[in-house]
Q: What sequence folds into this?
């Protein structure tokens, strides 16, 4: 602007913003970046739908039993492949035969299970739940049951 209060003609004239001293400027800058990142992340998760809950009938061999806390038990099971396993984004990703821990739902009776037993179990997967994968049913299989634990998926 000119001294008369009229806009200056010609190139755009920008008034510099007052600089904040060292650490205060860094804090303001970090806050602005953090706010942008949070808003971008929030929008991304809202736009991406998680896979709906699913149930899988699985067979395997119990390797270990761990009682985590009152009402919480994990069975480490070498299970057969789950070829139709759906990942968190809803894509069929399959799961190879492997040994992994599974949490047992509180309503499931597991006390007759011991390491070395062959079992059939229902695996319920709900990606929105605090414990996404739960064993919701267990059945002991006859010892002569043949399982394919070769690792193919």
A:
């Amino acid at each position: 602007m000119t001294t008369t209060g009229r806009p200056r003609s010609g190139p755009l004239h920008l008034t510099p913003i007052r600089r904040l001293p060292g650490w205060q400027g860094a804090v303001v800058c970090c806050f602005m970046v953090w706010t942008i990142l949070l808003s971008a992340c929030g929008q991304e998760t809202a736009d991406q739908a998680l896979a709906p809950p699913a149930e899988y009938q699985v067979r395997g061999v119990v390797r270990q039993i761990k009682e985590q806390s009152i009402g919480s038990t994990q069975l480490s099971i070498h299970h057969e492949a789950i070829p139709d396993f759906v990942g968190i984004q809803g894509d069929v990703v399959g799961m190879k035969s492997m040994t992994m821990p599974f949490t047992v739902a509180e309503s499931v009776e597991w006390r007759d299970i011991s390491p070395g037993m062959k079992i059939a179990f229902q695996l319920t997967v709900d990606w929105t739940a605090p414990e996404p994968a739960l064993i919701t049913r267990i059945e002991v299989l006859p010892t002569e049951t043949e399982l394919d634990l070769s690792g193919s998926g």
